[in-house]
Amino acid sequence: MKVFCISDNVDTQMGLRLAGIEGVVVHERQEVLDELDRCIIDPEIVIVLMTTKIVNTCPDIISNMKLNYSKPLLVEIPDRHGSAKVGETIDKYISEAIGIKL
């Protein structure tokens, strides 16, 4: 079982690499989608960490994957440049999944 990081900046990727988490730095929507496809195919990757900026490149696809794919688990992480409202994002996903506003 492996954790993988898809990041938009080198600092986040390097920090996680020091913790033993491999990853890539990408900037374009197609690069993000290509990496996500690669992570889905790889049976070893069970968790994919993505910075908020990466999630914002294709929120519709990532939201759909979170709701409909059992593997890998997609987790949004804030980076040092962002002031992400990750809690609100989680509330939104739960509300969409169960149909009740939290």
Please provide the ordered H/E string of secondary-structure elements.
EHEHEHHEH
Instruction: Please give the CATH class.
Output: Alpha Beta
> What do we call the CATH homologous superfamily?
ATPase, V1 complex, subunit F
- Amino-to-carboxy terminus distance: 33 Å
The CATH level-2 architecture is identified as 3-Layer(aba) Sandwich
Q: Which structural class matches the secondary elements?
A: alpha/beta
Number of domains: 1
Helix content: 40-55%
The strand count comes to 4
Radius of gyration: 13 Å
Mean pLDDT value: 85
Broad shape: globular
Percent of residues in beta strands? 15-25%
**Number of helical segments?**
5
Q: Spans of 5+ residues with little confidence (pLDDT < 50)?
A: none
Side-by-side strand order of the widest sheet: 2-1-3-4
**Main beta sheet, described?**
4 strands, parallel
Enter the CATH topology name.
Answer: Rossmann fold
GO molecular function: proton-transporting ATPase activity, rotational mechanism
Keywords: Ion transport, Transport
Family: Belongs to the V-ATPase F subunit family.
Protein name: V/A-type H+-transporting ATPase subunit F
